[in-house]
Write a structure and sequence with these properties.
The protein has 15 helices and ten strands. It is of the alpha+beta class. It has a domain of 94 residues. An eight-stranded antiparallel sheet has the order 2-3-4-5-1-8-10-9. A two-stranded antiparallel ribbon has the order 6-7. The chain is 44% helix and 14% strand.
Amino acid sequence: MPIRSIFNKGSDWLRSEGPHHQIVVSSRVRLARNLAGVPFPGWAKKVERMDTLEKIRAKVESLPEMADAYSFACQDLTALEKQVLVERHLISREHAAKGAGSAVVMNRRQTLSIMLNEEDHLRMQSIRAGLQLKAAFKAVNKVDTELEQSVDFAFDAELGYLTACPSNVGTGMRASAMLHVPGLVLSEQINQVIQAVNKIGLAVRGLYGEGTEALGNLFQISNQITLGEREEEIIERLQKVILQIIEHEKNARQNLLQQRSNTLLDQIGRSYGTLRYAYGMGSKEALNLLSMVKLGCDLGFYPEEKQHVVDELFMETQPAHLQKGSQKKLATEERDILRAGIIRGKLEGFEPPDVSGAMARVEPKAASAAEPPSSLPDPPMEGSI
């Protein structure tokens, strides 16, 4: 399957709506596995990595879930093509740096991808729209079970699955949800949430995972503990925390409408005006402004059908997507001009935000609406924040 065909088709998880989609952008579950008796990728020589790749790539491609799949050796992809895959969350930044001896296989819907010889021999991930951690786990667990019938994984009876990084030993699982929480950011409650989440053994990361910024008010919440808990227990605990954050975000949005409506409307209106009429725009600025317009869509300032336009712009205006679409190398200023032009074109059908209609739907102030997350108990074993 030619690489260009994947760029002509958006990811299913981005185009569809899942549970709590106004706050939870996506859910992802990743499993790390290694072959028994074979050096891990970081310690393997090139010939050993090539040999391991030959052993497992055909098995991955033959999975029922990978019928008519995309399959690419990293050495055959350009740096730009790999960066597009990173922006779509189909491969990691670390995998994008790999060359000979590494590959990626993904299904046509771009909801299931398997990195071969990343940090581990296999990094299998499933991604779904909205809050669907259990569905994502079910999908990737099925693939894991199918592969285990023909592949001998490195496993210890006491420790569980063995991985290159000790923090992944045990289940080898990382489950995460990408949340859009502008309400918590604007109401200055986000640091309290992050601190509470960290206290109960979960991690908060930016748009592209560990070590990246939380641009566009997007944060990843994931488990850190993989040893001593069953996969279902980890998923259940993370799900409970995500649901609590969703409630905090809803309360924050409602409170902003009730008590700081002028500030909120000014943020959304200014973002709309800048996006609609700017002729040059950097990536960070675009994400942050689009976040405010997305919030406006969620609050009913724009017709419901406009939501998908904004969601697609989050992806289409990323640097590698812009460069790939232009079919030529672009300087930073050229990208900024192109980005602004694409946004203007996509928002051409947007009228100014309908403030009166949205404000008419504001609910009466609830007693708990303004309570910050830190006012709630946070016993670690119960996963409360």
